[in-house]
Amino acid sequence: MLDICNIYKDFGSLKVLKGVSAHVEKGEVISLIGVSGSGKSTLLRCMNLLETPTFGEVWMEGKLLTQPDPYLHPEIIRASKTFEKLKAAGLADEDAIRKIKKEDLLHEKHGAEGKGYVRLMKEFYAANHLDANLARQKMGMVFQQFNLFNNLSVKDNITLAPVKIGTAKLKQAIREGQKTTETKESIKAAAEKKAMELLARIGLEDKADSFPASLSGGQKQRIAIIRALAMEPDVMLFDEPTSALDPEMVGEVLDLIKELAKSGMTMVVVTHEMGFAREVSDRVLFVDEGYIKEEGTPEEIFRNPKDARLKDFLSKVL
Amino acid sequence: METFISNIIRIMSRYGHVFLLEGVAYTLLLSLIAVAGGSVLGALFAFGKRGKIPPLRILINALVEIVRGTPLLLQLYAGVFILPRLIPALNELPDIVSVSVVLIINSAAYVSEVIRSGIQAVDIGQTEAARSLGLSERTTMWNVVLPQAVKNILPALGNEFITVIKETSLASTFYVGDLMTSYLKVRGNTFLTLECLTIVGILYFILTFTLSKLLAAAERRMKHA
Ligand SMILES: Nc1ncnc2c1ncn2[C@@H]1O[C@H](COP(=O)(O)OP(=O)(O)OP(=O)(O)O)[C@@H](O)[C@H]1O
Ligand SMILES: [Mg+2]
Predict the structure, then answer these.
(1) Which sign does the torsion angle of CA B111, B112, B117, B122 carry?
(2) Which residues of B touch A52 (CB under 8 A)?
């Protein structure tokens, strides 16, 4: 479903991720745990490209969401002028690749004749790329701060994306001369029907016309979750969904997430709720110092941690 | 004191139309032109600055910085005297047009900053949530960010209007008929400097005070909406 390949992320001189790879299977629930500032959110946000990885690739169902990373494709980097030069200077393949800097390759891109490296990169990109907007339509995200649209009613919060994206696709189809029975109105009606069903599922139909400002934190977060579900995503990303909630509201939100997990939704959850991670996760990843230091089943991670820093972390949070 | 007040009354009865029909009307008209034109141009500036064409971005930034960093009076001189020398075709333009154009550009520079900071003040989480749903940059801007930014922008635009009303007084340097021009005219006929100044002062104050009260009321209503 999702493949994270050797992701690096720098913010200026701060190196937050230093080579992270992970694989998310369909239907799997993965928890990311780790101390504050370890890069859990950054990793999650790289998955749906809210952050652009400095190096590395993100793949979703065989489609490349990022720019191709030449370092992951030796055959492409070997076609570069820079590589040729280093080889001519007598370096071995691996040493030469290691020695090539990103700037060298950028320079190459702008070189006069667009052959070799540049052409291969373009071809690889064209053959595998999926537009980030399209990818995000299939990746729901839930934020710590809810981020309901303040200017829209609850119902409009939920229907905005399905309606806008649905009508854009309809226009595209019409432009391409495809036959369709859909109209703008039918898309809107379907989105509203769906929104009401989702609201009914969390018992908040009566809030359809309310504005976010009048809702409790727990209500906001549950609506944020169904807003993402309205796009019928293949995978859901949660970034500490209960951290900004009053303690008495944590339960209602966790219950909804658990219910989703049971329904077979693929999920990646950044969480400080260890009990929750233990209960719902298929796998737990411990993010630390820019790496995934340890990963395993909840049993392995919580009962039998190996990494010293993981042990230390668990002793503080459990 | 009594003569002062009776002088004012006499001036108003004889020259009232100059102050009100010419002065106030022209000042309001100029301000309205400046703010309306400035808002449109300022919005274009703001979007150009956020846009993806680097030369345009640099050009707009330079213009905005120059306008914000030099006195309006100097800009008016440039518009009325200097530019026509460089571009002879502009010689034919009446001063009021040059003055209006300068006021519009000046206002646009400030408005573009108002719009930029109004957009920036909208929580970045709103944009991230919209993008995470797969919405395009454009849809996010029009349906989520701008409707919220407008609440920050409109009050600031109102303040800009008030500022411009006062700043149009500089246009009187070119005798374009605004409130300050009517002061110059009437003083020339009556030689009653203090009285004339008092009259235009009161008129300016009435204009800006009424406007700011209206704006405050509008703002209150907007908050409840
Ligand atoms: N946009 C940014 N610009 C600069 N630095 C950033 C940015 N985003 C995150 N960082 C920094 O990167 C590091 C990792 O941040 P991140 O939010 O990923 O940590 P986290 O593990 O999610 O922490 P927490 O548990 O507190 O949410 C932190 O030091 C943070 O200050
Ligand atoms: Mg975080």
Answers:
(1) positive
(2) none
Q: Are A9 and A46 in contact (CB under 8 A)?
A: yes
ipTM score of complex? 0.92
Range of the domain at B35: 2-224
- What is the tally of structural domains in chain B? 1
Q: What one-letter code names the amino acid at A127? A: A
Output the tens digit of pLDDT for each of chain A's 318 residues.
999 999 999 999 999 999 999 999 999 999 999 999 999 999 999 999 999 999 999 999 999 999 999 899 988 888 888 888 888 888 888 888 888 887 777 777 555 555 578 888 888 999 999 999 999 999 999 999 999 999 999 999 999 999 999 999 999 999 999 888 889 999 999 999 999 999 999 999 999 999 999 999 999 999 999 999 999 999 999 999 999 999 999 999 999 999 999 999 999 999 999 999 999 999 999 999 999 999 999 999 999 999 999 999 999 987
Tokens of A318: 């459990």
Judged by a CB distance cut-off of 8 A, whether residue B133 touches chain A is yes
Top residue of B128, B133, B154 to mutate, by most chain A CBs within 10 Å, is B133
Question: Rounded to an integer, what distance in angstroms lies between the CA atom of residue B196 and that of residue A86?
Answer: 84
pTM of structure: 0.88
Name the token pair of B165.
Answer: 């009303």
Q: Hey, is the C-beta of B119 within 8 angstroms of any chain A C-beta? A: no
Residue B189 sits in a domain whose CATH number is 1.10.3720.10
